[in-house]
Known about the structure:
By secondary structure, chain A is mainly alpha-helical. Chain A is built from 20 helices and 4 strands. Chain A has one domain (3-203, 227-578). Chain A has helices at residues 3-31, 39-53, 63-87, 103-114, 124-127, 130-160, 170-195, 232-241, 262-286, 290-316, 320-324, 348-361, 376-387, 398-417, 431-457, 459-462, 469-484, 499-528, 545-560, 564-578; strands at residues 206-215, 221-227, 423-424, 427-428. Chain A has a two-stranded antiparallel ribbon. A two-stranded antiparallel ribbon of chain A has the order 3-4. By secondary structure, chain B is α+β, with helices and mostly antiparallel strands. Helix content of chain B is 51%, strand content 17%. Chain B has 24 helices and 22 strands. Chain B has a 7-stranded mixed β-sheet with strand order 10-22-21-20-11-18-19, sandwiched between helices. Chain B has a 6-stranded antiparallel β-sheet with strand order 2-1-3-9-4-7, with no helix packed on it. A 6-stranded antiparallel β-sheet of chain B has the order 12-17-16-15-14-13, sandwiched between helices. In chain B, strand 16 (453-460) and strand 17 (463-474) form a beta hairpin. The longest helix of chain B is centred in the last third of the chain and has 38 residues, at 582-619. Chain B is elongated, with a radius of gyration of 33 Å. The two termini of chain B are 38 Å apart. Classes of the chains: A mainly alpha, B alpha+beta.
Amino acid sequence: MTAWSLAQITLALGVLLLAAVPLGRHMARVYEGQPTLLGRPLRPLERWLYRWSGVDPEKEMEWKAYALAMLAFHLVGFGAVYLLQRFQGVLPLNPDGLGAVEPTSAFNTAVSFVTNTNWQGYGGETTMSHLTQMLALTVQSFVSAGSGMALLVALIRGLTRRSTREIGNFWVDMTRSTLYVLLPLSLVLALALVSQGVVQTFRGHATATLVEAAQGSDGSPATEQRIAVGPVASQIAIKQLGTNGGGFFNANSAHPFENPTPLSNLLETLSILLIPAALCLTFGIMVRDRRQGWALLAAMLVVLVPAILLTTAFEQGGNPALTAAGADQHASAHQPGGNMEGKEARFGIASSTTWAAFTTAASNGSVNSMHDSYTPLGGLVPLVLMQLGEVIFGGVGSGLYGMLVLVIIAVFAAGLMVGRTPEYLGKKIEPFEMKMAAIAILAMPLAVLVGAAIAVALPAGTATIANPGPHGFSEVLYAFSSAGNNNGSAFAGLGANTPFYNVMLGLAMLVGRFVIKVPVIALAGSLAAKKIAASGAGTLPTHTPMFVGWLLAVVIIVGGLTFFPALALGPIVEHLMLH
Amino acid sequence: MTTAIETVTAAPPQTSQPGEPHGRAPLVDPALLRAAITDSFVKLNPRHMVRNPVMLVVEVGAVLSTALLIQALAGHGEAPTAFILAVSLGLWFTVLFGNLAEAVAEGRGRAQAASLRRARREIPAKVLAEGRHGGSWAHLPSGMLRAGHHVLVEPGDVIPADGEVVEGVASVDESVITGESAPVIRESGGDRSAVTGGTRVLSDWLVVRVTADPGQTFLDRMIALVEGARRQKTPNEIALDILLAGLSIIFLLVTASLLPFSAFANHAAGAGAPLPITVLLALLVCLLPTTIGALLSAIGIAGMDRLIRANVVATSGRAVEAAGDVDVLLLDKTGTITLGNRQATAFHPASGVREEALADAAQLASLADETPEGRSIVVLAKERFGLRGRDLGAAGANLVPFSAHTRMSGVDLGGRRIRKGAADAIEAWVRSQGGSMQPDVREWAELVAREGGTPLVVADGARTLGVVRLKDVVKGGIRSRFAELRRMGIRTVMITGDNPLTAAAIAAEAGVDDFLAEATPEAKLKLIREHQAAGRLVAMTGDGTNDAPALAQADVAVAMNTGTQAAKEAGNMVDLDSNPTKLLEIVEIGKQLLMTRGALTTFSIANDVAKYFAIVPAMFLATYPALGALNVMHLATPTSAVLSAVIFNALIIVALIPLALRGVRYRPIGAPALLRRCCGATC
Lengths: 579, 683
């Protein structure tokens, strides 16, 4: 690893932590209903929205009502996205005259954006009209993120309230998340990105005449090239901030119109983890014990930092197959070296690997390099980060509530060992909580393992595997890990836009999102109804390095080790065969 | 099931060691072990196994592998017959060892309970037709007694059932229950009216109203708690079961998905054979948290057993766990913190009165006083001034006994009218005699009270002579015990009827965290509610009927066996030794139970995960020889890897049975240190 790589990584992490502190404070104020700087301009709009939609912001919900509101909201969202895709041919803002999206692809995409996965089975610029990109995809990018944050806030209320059945109002949490956090941040980021050259236009593609005729995809000679443009910056901003990852272009943030400069790359990288990191601190503030928030953030960093360093080291180490072919992959004064296959020359190794670790630690899924082209171990790291259950930062809101579910499981065993029935923040962990936590941790392995098992067992699944041997298996495993964890990044190489994969991955995304969300809301409800036990010297402290280590052991056992046999048959054996 | 219970009850009971719950008695005697081994086969019944999801999965795996074995014996084996045989045996033994752990724990608990139960063999009871002494009675076997029956018990009779004395006073030998040989007085009314079945009346007679139907007594309920089949799981056990079931399902998914994964790998690599189902079953059982699954119920039963060994009877397993959670202990001062009686330690004469004269008057006033306080005054006078006891009867003395109305006692002797009592009572007395309290006497009284003593003012007629200092004697070692509790995170609150000054001084001497002075039953109840509202769990002991509301409100309530029936009904544990300090031991037993459960869970999961690395690389060696690099344990063949893991998995259960039964040792060090120690021990 070069000093320059280390400097880039340190810069990214340092700025991230600096920015997370004020944002964490701001969000705590937003969710506790305290006045914020943005209140003056936005409060009237918020009030008007409630009046217009007939929501009484003072009326709180029990967990079942909260869950129903959430499910109903996403069902409507799903319908809207599906229909917009199917009818985009006859709808306005379609300058390139793109036709209706194929039904299973439309289903997959609708699920994908509603679940905050933003897996893209389609090529954006050749499939979706501007209207679909904006009204269907960008809108869902906002609200699917907002819904995750709302749920987290409900869970925090469950932990802090005592002897009540109410956990907040879904519509209010949703509105405030979007209005006071996601929209302002996206606006600022979109403008910053436009300044760096990210395109933002309603026009159709531009046409350039080629200096030298090339061969088209159908074999005929091509003399001109269509350069796709559109309302890109506005979508990229929320794509990064809301851990969505669904880009405008097929190449995602490797495309120069989505991510043109090193500065835009840094901003986009930071945006991936900004809200998830800040939410840890928001959590600490809202539970009136900031150490709890820092402990969770520390736990996440303890996994993230080595992950970045490892991927960077593996990629910088280069590919022995390329060395055998005579390529020089050593860093020198003339070249940065390393395995540059699938990476943008303008970003190099460190910026690509940092992004890869960030985007898979968070359930973002946007890419600025092609993970499929990483060395086996370099690609193993992002895969493992997803398989940990997207709790190392994870999705906005969803990452932290996922982590809190694991905290409950960690507290259970550790609490017993100090001779008390387990409790977290004074809330006793009893059979109902454990049942909900167990369902939540079951959902992901179910979606990933069953999905991948069916895919490799059926001809429909194996037919579109492009690479032979263990790498082909890694591709399938990666696809289901990405879908089941609502990440959305792709290992490419797998032809996933087929009816089989569209449906299977769609189902995996639904299970991975909602079979966790509903138990989490139930957990919030049952925790809120409990008393808060006083803490003392006999209570297990949950902010110490000891507990952080304990929690990570649980994360690794529940998430990571589940996939050890599968990983052994994929990237691990691939690595061993390569050397 | 019934047969199993009978086999074990027939086994000789364990020798009990009251007051020594952590004693290192032999864990299991051979007869008990033989019965337990039979029992572990009986427990293979799926209807029993269904209570334990993890072990049920193992049993299903064992049945499956046996079916595969039969297939192999028929010549269509998917793997070598010997291998399948070895795996099947490994799986069956895993299930049997789990059952054995439970059976041994049950046997030990039952043996312990049986030794208590022997006290209640069938005895003829004299049932009074009219329910009062002197009426006619008829013999009825004790097993036929119902609540509400009135029985007559005469000298030499064994009290046939738990009940309440409604008439009479008698001395009762309760040594079968408490091990204490000195007889105790039982009388109707008041706080000494409860009698326990099996104890023997030594003198006089009692009419006892039976308060429990057969099978409903405390002891019966306790026995049910150690019998696996009827034992109700505590919420904590249920939560742990759910967690283990969740993990089991995940591991089931892992193993099942390996079948298509490995088939795809074989196809892609063009090498290797399909994975035998036997290997997958073995992998599944190795991954399942079998260690804790097998030992979970044994841990719970052993916890109850430790409680019986401490001579405490609990009505639910939940109460024992709650004891581990206790944040606040309410302790009665008298008997728990201090020795039951106050002792005279000094004479403080009024000015112009010789100390010896004061001692002489105090001794005269106390000669007829049979209370421990009175006797201690006589002893002190003798020690200090050699004053001997005198025969008051010969001197024509008129004894004035203590009465609640006057709150004084004393003697009228040859024109002297000596009285001793509380300062305000004596002040009223001297005033009625036309005198007044000397100022320095009042000062002495206040000083003594401030220092935690009880001042007893002595007056002769209208003249106050001085103050006798009575002092509560704090039990030896209690201070360090409270310091331990503080390190465990438990606050101690002393409850006393004393005035706040006295209470504060004793509280400081004993090292309690807080005290409640001039406590009334209402004040006690209020204190408990306040602590509970602040989220704390409260434990207390009590014996009187007026303790009942507070006992019912407390989370852990230990009633003294000598207490009233009302107190016993209100509490959730009964201490057969009637030793209020036992509460501290109960807390430790509760904590130990939870810690053992936690430590074995952690060990089990960590241990199962380690087996991954032994088996998984070996499984796929045929497909991808490159995976040999991960074979860190250098196991020679895939079959040896699988077999050694299965065998280890079964044997570790047996190896940990003693730990499950004896429990992890508890040390009063704060939670973080405990966690560190526990982790160190398991990982």
